[in-house]
Amino acid sequence: MTQNREFRDFAEFKRNEHLIEGYASTFEPYEMCEIEGEKYFERIEPTAFDECDMSDVVLRVDHAGAVYARTSAGTLALETDDHGLHIKADLSRTANSRALYDEIEAGNYPQMSFAFTVADDGDHYDEESRTRVITNVRKLYDVSPVSFPANPNTELHARALEYFNGEIEKLKAERPEEAIEEERGEDLNEETVTPEAEAVEERAVELKAEDAAEASEDFDTEEERNTDAEEYRKIQEAVISGELGKIIESHEERKDTSKMFEINTVEYRDAWVKNLIGRDMSAEERSALTSAGAVIPTMTVNAVWDKLIKPAELLGKVDVTQFPNYVRFPKATTNNAATSQAVGGTISESSDVIGYVDLVPAEYVKLLTVGADIDHMAIPAVHDWIVDNLTGQIRAKMNADILVGSNSNAFKGITGSVSAASTAIPSTLTKASLLGIMGALDANYQNGAIWVMTPSMFFTEVMALTALNDYIINNGFEYKLFGHDVVLMSEALVSSKETIFYGDPKAYKVNIFKPLEVKRFETATTTNLQFRGACLADGELLDTSAFVRFART
Known about the structure:
Elements: E1 6-10, E2 14-16, E3 19-26, E4 30-35, E5 38-44, E6 58-61, E7 64-70, E8 76-80, E9 84-90, H1 95-105, E10 111-118, E11 123-126, E12 131-134, E13 137-146, H2 155-174, H3 176-183, H4 195-217, H5 222-241, H6 266-277, H7 283-292, H8 298-308, E14 319-321, E15 327-334, E16 353-359, E17 362-370, H9 379-404, H10 414-417, H11 431-439, E18 450-453, H12 455-462, E19 472-475, E20 478-481, E21 484-488, E22 493-494, E23 497-503, E24 508-520, E25 529-541, E26 547-551
Parallel strand pairs: 5-12, 6-13, 14-24, 18-21
Antiparallel strand pairs: 1-10, 2-3, 3-9, 4-5, 6-7, 8-9, 10-13, 11-12, 15-16, 17-25, 18-23, 19-20, 20-21, 22-23, 23-26, 24-25
């Protein structure tokens, strides 16, 4: 649920090479609202984020929709310094995130905002400076470029007014004399005060007056003062218990029992998983699923996409789009070169020929079978386990098909589009032979080119060449050869022959017509639980000159 989340804007952020950074929060006080001519402020303590849950913070637009960066994916980083909570987001990994960077660069999202919740007893009000001081942020949910900064008509302003008005009322309640002084001269509704209540009030005033007179004259005994105090206490108890006076109006906290879950909440995700595995659900969970049409939770969609598109794999490097219908990409079959001539000269007519690549959806499907012991797992663990297994298997199949797909109810692989070069990979690999492979690629595709080869070829032959010590860079299990990424795939062993691919993956188009759906699969042949994950996709290389392929004979 999101109703307890708070949102704050912060200043314009820095941008550089698909990297944005700035401060999600600073530790300086900032104005929240104005009440009766007095300004009220808020300040976040430097230690407020010490125990904050920032394990899975996402970057979205206007706090909704698709995820463009995420702490758990390593594309969003947050840390505190002397100035505030600093964020840094890498928007270079996907086409969608790069498009968002371009939108930010164009000035369409002038500020950022962050969503958070405050821990119980995580704030207090400083009366002297009229400031709400936040000392403990419970959880940080997202940071978001926003279309419009907060303004006096937003929920933020309304909630600020509610908070500070509440603090003002608390102070009045703690100082009844001041409250009475402020109310003098105002009309009171005397019909709501009963004779019994008037009598109680008059007797209380008399007792106070007697106590004051006796104290000033100092002639009463300790026993008499104790008796009067006991009588005054009994009158108070009688009023509280209802024996004296009359209750005019009472208030009690009302809780919203009609909790409706939004599809981007943990509650909806848990209800969806319970329905998937056949666990008992509450009435409100069933209502939420019915109202939403049992659509896949936003959290699940985001998790699937994060696990499907891995930057170090081939699927994470090709050009991926998400058009729901059949799609046709143009490609130049004949593309004559541009010419130069005298100004105003006659243009020589030449014929360019445009061809097309039609992508038609194929179904990528995985049937997951599990035993009844899944019923002992916690709901979040069940969700993550199903997503990991279904997405992992489908991702592996798509990656393989980009390279060697048959084009029959599958991607058309690069192998089927690019013929092997006449020059074979020598039995003993050398630096010169690798440079020869690079030199065979069209110059237009050199800048974004990558290597694709088997782990055996790379680790036992390429890395064994001492002449390449200065030309191989690794960051964990990510490698570069001559400055170009290396993708390791067992499928590069084509027809039992070691094969090296070199080319620009952005020339390969993948369209996902329908994202991964997960449904329970009913069958009479097994008592186990079965889940069916499926998505519709197709892919093909637009220009065969974008890759070269060398095989060892």
